[in-house]
Amino acid sequence: MTTVILWRHGNTDWNNARRYQGQTDIPLNERGVAQAAAAATRLALYKPGLIISSDLSRAATTAAELGRVTGLAVERDARLRERSFGPWEGLTRDEVTERYPEAMKRWKVGETLPEDGLEPLADLGKRVTEAIRQAADRVPGGVAVVVTHGASVKWGISTLLGWPDEIARTVRPLDNCHWSELRLEDGKFWVLASHNVGPHAGV
Questions:
Q1: Are the C-beta atoms of 12 and 58 separated by less than 8 Å?
Q2: Under a CB-based contact definition with an 8 Å cutoff, are residues 43 and 66 in contact?
Q3: Whether 69 and 94 share a structural domain
């Protein structure tokens, strides 16, 4: 059985301000670094053989904590970046609602248009799923930790497992520095074994 852990980055100032981060490169704050260090000690118990991170610094810094504990080098993959939110990046939800009211209405019901400037969910799910599958291929029977972002985890999982959008939208996004566990059983069947697990929980 091959396991892929999808680990969301630690806390940032933009998380606290509830600003859309997207692919803007916002660093971890002190709380985020502490979260990453605490989670890394738990994730190390999985004995990963591979760590791959989004190339955005909030994910890469998170991944570096696990690399420090395990002695593994951290690889970076741009396919693991957060969804691009285009002109929304840096804005709060209230600010988006004020500046882009029609786009926000579409977003709330799961629809966006090219002119909204947001990355299509199908594109997000496809690139993240490709990265997950390739990570699994490199650790047959072992464990890979993939360090990424909230929307990337949610839509990567839903695309990988073939969930329709109406099911995917019911899944709660990961909290900062929490993770989900995917297992590839018999080399054929992907299973979501756990979701939104934090460093306070047992492994």
A1: yes
A2: yes
A3: no
* Full residue range of the structural domain in which residue 164 is found: 2-84+120-197
pLDDT (tens digit, 9 = 90+) per residue, 145-160? 999 999 999 999 999 9
- 153 located within any domain: yes
The lowest-confidence range among 35-39, 104-108, 138-142 is 104-108
**What residues are labeled active site?**
9, 82
Q: Are residues 76 and 139 in the same domain?
A: yes
Alpha helix locations (H) across the chain?
Answer: 13-16, 30-43, 57-70, 93-99, 101-108, 121-138, 150-161, 165-168
Q: Is 126 left (phi over 0), alpha (psi -120 to 50) or beta?
A: alpha
Contacts of 67 (CB under 8 A, 6+ apart): 51, 73, 74
Same domain, yes or no: 110 and 124: no
* pTM reported for the whole predicted model: 0.94
Mean pLDDT, all residues of the chain: 95
Same domain, yes or no: 68 and 105: no
The verdict on 106 and 162 lying in the same domain is no
| Average pLDDT, integer, range 110-120 | 90
Residues 114 and 151 in one domain: no
Percent of the chain past pLDDT 70, that is, above it, reads: 98
| Distance in angstroms (rounded) separating the CA atoms of residues 39 and 144 | 15
